[in-house]
DNA sequence: CATGATTGTTAGCCAAGGCTAAACTGTTTG
DNA sequence: CAAACAGTTTAGCCTTGGCTAACAATCATG
């Protein structure tokens, strides 16, 4: 029953990089990320629906499915959820529309997305990489950071 | 409720912001994000275990649970998964250790995390915000962008 | 050294977000 | 105008990642 436990011990903090954040703060970090994950997908759908409406005049489930690379059944299920959340109005077998709340969310998401995307390009990231990274990052950037990104981009472009 | 469709219609692309990306590219963006989500949590656990080992000499389930703000049962279940994936070795009721592969993952994650964190600080983001944002962003930053962030940070600090 | 506190595990529940297969609707066209 | 096809929905399944409650092991300590 002896403890093993490689005594790799006593690692002096000075040699082992940044210290652990205080417990409370650390916990808050993870919680924030978990919360973001809950809304992330919803926002992506709403944003995409908004984009389809703006660019195509309609948003069909099939388009969403192919753009998201997901099955139509998955989209259908998600639409019901969006409906229940009061973000879209849908009549069976017809195009979707956003409720007022949905439009607000789409607008906000699109704005965030664009700030991040333009920021990455201003930083010097290749366009197609920037698109991919922006898609992943947009939901994890605080308002504070977003504002800084925007300022940075503007300075770069002047 | 029936005022459908602000006829914002026929939106000329020039007025409606960036065009939709070509379908294939668009689909790849979402796929990349979905894939990131699958490994994200795993990496967070492994990274945290690595940090606990470095700073404390041991990684107990209770510590992980409180730092992640998650129940012990959740941690216990996750540890079995990490075990199955060959990332940690665990004997019941004992501290965890990382396998060689786990250590590699922890190292890589930690490095990414630090690059993003230091980049955000160099950009001018407040420390506690930077920590939160870094936690969320780290899994969505491509190698290309990461390299650019690192260069930027170094220039800033010179 | 017994016992209570702490820590870890197991069982069983739930929601989210995927999937395929099958059923249904709407549209196009022969 | 009927049949075929494209689009949509439903049913039912799976995995992940949470949770609580009950139980088990370990550890401190009176």
TrEMBL record, chains A, B:
SMART domains per the UniProt record, alphabetical:
HTH_DTXR (SM00529)
Task: Give the span(s) annotated as Disordered.
Answer: 1-21
Q: Looking at the keywords, is Glycosyltransferase present?
A: no
Q: Name one Pfam family in it.
A: Fe_dep_repress
Mind telling me which GO cellular component terms the entry cites? cytoplasm
InterPro entries assigned? DtxR_MntR_Metal-Reg, Fe_dep_repressor, Fe_dep_repressor_sf, HTH_DTXR, Iron_dep_repressor, WH-like_DNA-bd_sf, WH_DNA-bd_sf
Q: Which domain of life is it from?
A: Bacteria
Checking PROSITE patterns in the record gives: HTH_DTXR (PS50944)
Compartments where located: Cytoplasm
| Domain HTH dtxR-type stretches | 39-99
Q: Tell me which UniProt keywords the record has, alphabetically.
A: Activator, Cytoplasm, DNA-binding, Manganese, Repressor, Transcription, Transcription regulation
Gene3D superfamilies in the cross-refs: Iron dependent repressor, metal binding and dimerisation domain, Winged helix-like DNA-binding domain superfamily/Winged helix DNA-binding domain
One annotated GO molecular function is: protein dimerization activity
Q: What is its main location?
A: cytoplasm
User: What function does the entry list?
Assistant: In the presence of manganese, represses expression of mntH and mntS. Up-regulates expression of mntP.
- Tell me how this protein assembles: Homodimer.
Protein family: Belongs to the DtxR/MntR family.
Kindly give the NCBIfam families that the UniProt entry links to this protein. PRK11050.1
Q: How is this protein named in the record?
A: Transcriptional regulator MntR
Tell me the lineage of the source organism: Bacteria, Pseudomonadati, Pseudomonadota, Gammaproteobacteria, Oceanospirillales
